[in-house]
Each structure stands twice: as C-alpha cells, then as structure tokens.
Design goal:
By secondary structure, this protein is an alpha/beta fold. The relative contact order is 0.17. It contains twelve helices and twelve strands. The chain has two domains: about 190 residues, Isopropylmalate Dehydrogenase (3-Layer(aba) Sandwich); about 140 residues, Isopropylmalate Dehydrogenase, CATH 3.40.718.10.
C-alpha cells in the first residue's frame, strides 16, 4: 500500500482524559488546520458521548479495517473499535479502562508494523491508572520499545518544537535514582540514537548536540559533584571519537535561553524535568513528544491527560495537530515503509 493511502494510527489514550476531546477537535479543524487522514483506535461510543458533551456535530463511523479510513476521512471520523470496560466519565480516571488503553496502543503498533498504517500517534495516558491496573511499564516510551522487540534503552524520548529539541537520558524514574542510572554507555547510546534519527527523520545530516551537566554549574570543576568529570565528559569524548558533533557538559541553567538555543540542533539532558521544563515553557502548545530508536514513527502531544479539562470544551487540540503533522512529515522524510 502506498504511504499516501495509509492512515495515521491514533490511539485512544485515557478515555476519561482529554484524548477524546482533542481527537474530535483536531478532526473538526481539519480544513483550517489540515492533517493527513487518521484512524482512531478506541471505543466509538466514548467518542460519540464526548462529542455530545462538547456540542460537536461530527459524524463518527466504525470501520473494520484501517485501510478504509482515508476514503472516509473527509466526511466522517473513522474509528477502529476497541471497547472500553465500565462507564467512562470525563475527568474521572478508572482502572477498568486500562485494558482498552493498552490494546489501543498494541493495535496501533501492529497496524504500522504490518504496513497498514503509516505511523503511530498516541493520545495521553494516565501512567498511575495503568500501573494500578497491573501495567508494568513506566510510560509509553518503554512500552513501545517492548512492542518493537527492543530494550527500553533503545527507545529515546525527544520533545520537539520549532525552536527547540530536547532529549532526556533518563526518563520515568525518581530523581533520587538518576545518578545511579547514569553511566557512560547509556549516555553514549542516547547520543548515537539521537544523531542517527535526527538525520533520518529531520534531515539534519550531522546534528550539533549540546549536553547538559547533572549538577548545578555542571559540577563547578568537581566542587558540586563529580558526575560530569567521571561520567559525562568521558561519554562526550567517546561520542566524539565516533564522529558525532557533541559538546558540553553545559550548565543547564544557561543552555535554554534564546541565544543559546541557536547554537545547537538538540540538547541532551540528564533527567526528565531538566529537559522537559524548558521546552514546555518555551513551546507548550507546539511541542511534540517523539520516540526515537523505534523501527516506526511515533509521536504524541507533549501534555498529559488533563482530567480537569475533559469534557469542558477548554482543551486545545494544537499539540495533537502538531503531533499528527510531524508524524506524517517524519514518515515522508524516512522514505520507507516501517
């Protein structure tokens, strides 16, 4: 199947969150904010109920195959059904829905790996709700790696916006565990995957990667911690020996102002908030979560489930629209089927 005929596979996300809202709003905005055809993998009744709550007059059509979606997309929002157990109430997370959330992700990956869909785009999930229901992964990134047959360390989370791209080396672990999780090999692998996929999906042949330190002032020559000297500097040196354009470590508090952002293609930080706080401050509505290192394209809005906004009409579809557009662009640039 030609890539132009394959829809994007959009997952349900937590049905009590804003996933249904922003899916409907992104579809409604398809003429003023065009996106490629997508198929929503989820419960059509949940979507229909949320449309009623939001006062949206949108035709929702259940399909048997994802391949039906492109021809329907101009007139109806195509949904590949995955039933949700229990009653879904906007704003009230329920672990009964966890099975459907997981199946939606699994089905999206199956479609892309079979060549029926072009890329995976995921709506926000509630990690706590899933974990309470027995989900054994700390987030989308690690679960997607497993579905792709990879180790968790093979999948790298990048947040991308027009003026900033950031990658955290460690992701969904407590801050007190970060230092133990950082080692030279893990940092080098993150740098390798980042450089390779920026070339493959973003057309940056030899990206300049700026690396943060871990400690305040990048350790201040060892007076505020020795991780920079003992781990981060050797990792940078190893990456440079492989021909990667890597510099640092830089103090994180000086790496993200406007002038600094012009000096690199991507910043690699040591932990989750060190990377995500700056990009969500600079470009909250335009940011897209991208998983690098997978054998297929995956993007997501850069925000969470926002339960307080679900069903209120206040959720913005902007980040989802950007995620749909970026997934399409990445797949087109890669120039090959998954």
């Amino acid at each position: 199947m030609d890539s132009a005929e394959r829809p994007l596979a959009l997952t349900l996300g937590d049905p009590a969150g804003i996933g249904p809202d922003i899916t409907l709003l992104a579809y409604q905005a398809r003429q003023s904010a065009p996106v490629s055809p997508f198929v929503l993998i989820g419960d059509p009744s949940v979507l229909a109920e949320r449309a009623r709550a939001l006062g949206l007059d949108i035709e929702i059509e259940t399909v048997g195959e994802a391949s039906e979606a492109p021809s329907l997309f101009a007139e109806a929002l195509p949904v590949l059904p995955v039933s949700v157990a229990g009653d879904v109430v906007a704003g009230r997370p329920d672990s009964a829905a966890a099975g459907a959330v997981q199946r939606s992700i699994e089905r999206a990956v199956e479609l892309v790996r079979a060549g029926t869909a072009s890329a995976v785009v995921t709506n926000p999930i509630s990690k706590a709700t899933l974990i309470h229901a027995g989900f054994s992964f700390p987030g989308h990134t690690e679960f997607l790696a497993k579905l792709a047959g990879l180790d968790a360390s093979d999948a790298v989370m990048m947040l991308a916006a027009p003026d900033l791209k950031v990658v955290p080396v460690t992701i969904h672990i407590p801050l007190k565990e970060v230092m133990a999780a950082l080692d030279e090999g893990r940092i080098v692998k993150t740098l390798e995957i980042t450089a390779r996929d920026l070339a493959r999906y973003f057309g940056v042949a030899r990206p300049h990667i700026a690396v943060t330190g871990l400690n305040p002032h990048a350790g201040e020559d060892g007076t505020m911690g020795r991780e920079e000297i003992e781990v981060i500097v050797p990792a940078i040196a190893a990456a440079r020996r492989q021909g990667l354009d890597v510099t640092g470590p830089y103090s994180a508090d000086t790496l993200f102002h406007a002038a600094a952002r012009k000096t690199y293609d991507v910043a690699v930080a040591m932990y989750h908030d060190q990377a995500l706080i700056p990009i969500k401050t600079v470009a909250f509505d335009l940011g897209v979560n991208v998983t690098l290192g997978l054998p297929f394209v995956r993007t997501s809005p850069d925000h969470g489930t926002a339960f307080a906004l679900a069903g209120t009409g206040q959720a913005s579809p902007r980040s989802l629209i950007e995620a749909l557009r970026l997934a399409d662009a990445m797949q087109a640039r890669a120039g090959a089927k998954p």
